[in-house]
Design goal:
Radius of gyration: 23 Å
Oligomer: single chain
Number of domains: 2
Number of helices: 3
């Protein structure tokens, strides 16, 4: 007797679509979540359909809000971002710090603006 055919599951929000395909492996059930991020196809495999659906919904929600765009950062860029955020006082966003720095550079003109020579922590 043939195993029942399981159709792909589609998760959609706005123009963002993710699909889950049954992909049995070595006699075990598996489900592959497929979506596109930054123009590249991304595939993630899960042992249960429910896990794939949860992750698929999370990915679709985040992509539709534009929250995963930063995932295209290289490893060096992510490390640089993390170091910059670690230098900031608690509660200060990197965006605010960059705006204040840009404002200070604009006011100072060509006057050198160097970081402090004492440890920050």
């Amino acid at each position: 007797m043939k195993a029942p055919v399981i159709k792909p599951v589609q998760i959609k929000k706005g123009s963002v679509i993710a699909r889950i395909y049954p992909t049995p492996r070595d006699g075990y059930d598996a489900f592959t979540l497929v979506f596109y991020r930054d123009g590249k196809r991304v595939r993630k495999v899960f042992p249960t359909l429910e896990q794939a659906k949860r992750e698929g919904q999370s990915v679709v929600d985040a992509l539709s809000r534009g929250e995963i765009a930063g995932s295209s950062l290289t490893g060096d860029q992510r490390a640089s971002y993390r170091r910059a955020v670690d230098l900031l006082p608690h509660g200060v966003s990197l965006e605010l710090a960059a705006a204040e720095y840009a404002g200070a550079k604009k006011m100072l003109g060509e006057v050198p603006f160097s970081p402090p020579t004492f440890p920050i922590a």
